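Demo today. Your pick:
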Amino acid sequence: MIRFPMWAVAITCTALAALEPACSSKSSPGSASSASKSARKPAASAPAAVVTASAKPAVAPPLEAFFGGRAPAEVKLGALIDGANYHYTLKVPAGWKSSNLNGGDYMLQSADVSAVVLLLGTSGAAVNDKLLGIRAKQLPMSATELSPTLEPKVIEVGEGKWLAKAGHSKGKLAGEPGELYWLDMATISAGYDDHLAFLVSLKNTASEQTRKEAQALVRTMTPYKGQNLWELSKGK
């Protein structure tokens, strides 16, 4: 048997290192083989990022968006109106004009008359398209050619979340294009149904601030006597 000196073995292994890293005579069994397999194994790809759509804020339906919630904070509110005949109170935005028409009937308007609010008794009749066509013609609202855009429904109004039937129409206001939001506020007392038409007209030229003032006026309204007819009928 031919024995080679250790320096010869070292040289031979150095020469073969490029071909087989496992040549070292000092390596522990299996360690070189593991290193070779590790070097050959492709790097694991990073897990794909999970893309999730950012949650979009819920958008309230048109009627709920206009009538529901607190009065916009940026609106300055002034005088308190007490519609004693129909048992409600509300606050008038600063700069608006208010007039008592007859008992509990009121007319309110913005400084530029691009927004007009009418609160009118209906002699016990529920608010409908025919009634709107007659009552909304009153000056200075002067609404004509009204066409419903939404199916009327019972909604929660204002911060107090009192129930009323609401609707929306488009048409002309004093000859200009605009829209009309309305509420049928109904109470029952001593067996008698009492309805109040709450009409809010907005010309297309009304500023965003004027629209917020009209919303604030509606949302501050608070019924204070009688039972809510819509609650008794469970919103039907």
Q: What stands out?
A: Residues 122 and 195 are 6 Å apart (CA to CA). The longest helix spans residues 208-219.
